[in-house]
Amino acid sequence: MATTPRSGSEPETAPQPPAPPAGGAVERAEAVLVEQYPRLVRLAYVTLPPSLGRHTRVLLAHRAVQHALPRAGGGRDPGGTGSPDSPGGPLEELRVRVLRAALAPAGGARGLLARTGWPPAPPFVWGLRLWPPAGGIDEAARLLGEAPGPVRAAFVLHRLDGLPEEAVVRLLGAAGAAGPADAVREARAVAAGEPLPPALLNPEFDATVVSARPTDLLRRRRWVRAGWAAAATVALAGGILVADVSPPRTEAAPAAGPAAAGVLDPARLVRVPAEAWADTARVDFTAWPARGDRTADRALLTRALGAWAARPGGIRTTAAPGTPTDAPGRPPRLLYAGDVAAAPGEGADAATAVVVLLDAEDDRVVRYTEPARGGSGGGASGGSGTRTLDLARTDEAGITTAAALTLTRAPDGTAARYLLAPWIASAGTRDLLRAGDTTRPLAVAADGVTAPVAVPRGAGACDAWPVVELTSSARIVEKHSFVLADLGTLTPVHLTYTPLPDGPGAVAARQPREATGAPARAAWAPGACGLRALRGDGVRAVNVWDFAASDLPDGGGRAVWSCTRASGWAGPGDVLVQLRPPAGPPQEVARARSTAACGRFGQHLLAGTRWRSPAGRWYLLAAGSREVTAITASGAVRAEAGGRSLVVPAGPQGAPVSLTARLASGARITALDGGAGGRD
User: Fold this and answer.
1) CA–CA distance from 593 to each of 188, 540, 618 (Å)?
2) Please, which contacts does 313-316 make with residues 24 or more away whose CB atoms are closer than 8 Å?
3) CA–CA separation, 625 and 605 (whole Å)
4) Average pLDDT estimate for 397-414
5) 155 backbone φψ class: left, alpha, beta (φ>0; ψ -120 to 50)
6) Averaged pLDDT of the chain
7) Confidence category of residue 348, pLDDT binned at 50, 70, 90
8) 3-state DSSP helix/strand/coil % of the chain, to nearest 5
């Protein structure tokens, strides 16, 4: 049988496969899996996070589908008695199994892959890189951007496979996804009104078709030879150890294994021409040239590469959340190698040798440091002193998020030097806590290294929050300035601001703007110290979204509702909703972790809180984003208001109150924190 497709989607199922031979549920499930294989692969591929890369997702998608076939006698009958796509039928069971594999947290085969880069088995592909052709399945994955896995899965099931929303919620719930109803709602808002890639609507579209190209043939040949050489070396070393146990070396040999044979050769480091950034459409870390006064220091580069591959004892290693620390699969790019001067007040011998490398294949940047005794070109012995290795993610970095890297920090953590991108024309500093603070010029050397910059303190009184304001070169963009904040990591964080909608009832979406204008400065100043909570969390950008404004009762003035979203390099983000009164500190309203709310895929928002007026009376306040047309309170407080805000007398402290809102489309949403019962 076949069902009628929804508008803009393809039919839910193809004609029912022929009856399988007698043999039971597993045979019926196998027949459905073979018939629906391309759709199941599409579901797995799009659900998997884009940070894994296209080649990896292709392999994992096929693995998830092939492992979805139930075992004989391994549980309930997945064959059912109705059609394959009926509730409880074999197709539903297969979808649930595929979703569980694609949504599984890091661990097992998928976690091993994320950490080591080895492809799963089966299937196993040697010597080839695979990816979907343009315009098809990969286009759908790109359309979803950094949306969470459940939202990506809901998009495929509802919009591409044409399943009704209740069926999608049931499938996601059975697969163990958190908040399946919210995921369906967010998926419905993804690219609303935008046409799907034509290939996806073609009945002949096959999600299993991939393109293939060979990997580096010469490198593979060297790896094989190095593998045999390593095996022979191990055998020889074993024989020597039997005869004579000699003292161990103080540092592991960097070229220890076939994978390291080519990538650890400083001569093979990729070096980008100095002006490449001005002649490319990809303005990110891959356009950075090799800078610094020690880019030709083979000994220093060898120590940096060896530390990355072998991580011998005595090297302090840190990695941002979700960043693999294994050695690169191909020669990395050299971004910087040089001696960075000591901070004011330190001795001349406190200079630091720094090497910065980029693994463009795995989207990560690495910084190696060691004491720079002997000055430029003198090199460090590598035998003593503090040596560090820091890794961070760089997924989909751009003009702003690839604009700077932290080179060194003062021992007391009060200052730092940054390496700026080659497209930065000027730099300055200012205090984010003071909206009217003027921007002071920041000196930048010819190699892109800044003078020492004060950084926010991680503890104690928060009386200042220094930030860096950069201006891009007119060769790539005109009059573009933006703000970066130091949260104690290798990659500074991009700060942005989304203003209130224009006028009451406005429905036009506003895009985040740079945090440089007067409204942005005013919005950031009251809550800048809240950035402390994000230190070391692998954050790439933080946006303050003023989504609503409300007139407060009893002459309280006009307050602004804001949602601050901290987006990580890996995709998920944390949000904080606050009520900003005309005077005084902001009032916390709600928090949520690993959510799409307040971002590109979570543009509908409702929040509420208890608030005490200047007259001493308590009120229940609620507000919604631009498409909210009515708000309803139930529970201890029962009220309804048209428009985007609600103000009513509050119930007893701690009494539960539920808040819901109706959107212009007729859909309903709930408050981010569920309600506003007990927050004072």
Assistant:
1) 21, 15, 29
2) 314/250, 314/387, 315/387, 315/388, 315/389, 316/386, 316/387, 316/388, 316/389
3) 5
4) 92
5) alpha
6) 79
7) low
8) 25, 25, 45
